[in-house]
Amino acid sequence: MQLLQLFERVPRFLRSFYFLTTLGFLVWMFVFDSNDLFKQYDMYAKWRELQGEKEYYLKNIDLVKKDRAELLSSPELLEKFAREKYIMKRPGEDVFMLVPQAAQ
Fold this sequence. Notes:
Layout: H1 2-9, H2 17-32, H3 37-73, H4 75-86
Helix pairs in contact: 3-4
Organism: Hymenobacter daecheongensis DSM 21074
Pfam families: DivIC
Protein name: Septum formation initiator
C-alpha cells in the first residue's frame, strides 16, 4: 500500500510511456552509446590539439621556405650553412669542434 501511495504522488507526466521512453533514449545516447558524450568531448579536445599542431607546422613551413630561398640565392650563405650545420669542409682544411664538457 505504501508503494502505491508513493507512486500516486509522482506527477502523471513523469509516469507516461513517452516520457520514460525519451528519458531512456537520452540516457542510452549520453552514457552507453559508442559515441557518448565523453568520447565526443575527447574527440573535440584532440581536434583542438591537432588544430594547434597544424598552425605550428604551417608557420614552420613558411620559415623553411624563406630560409631555403635565402640559401639558394647566395652561394656564400649556402657554404656557411653547410659548414655550420653539417660540419662540411674544403679539401685540405682541418675542422676543430669544441664541445662543452658535461657537468658532473
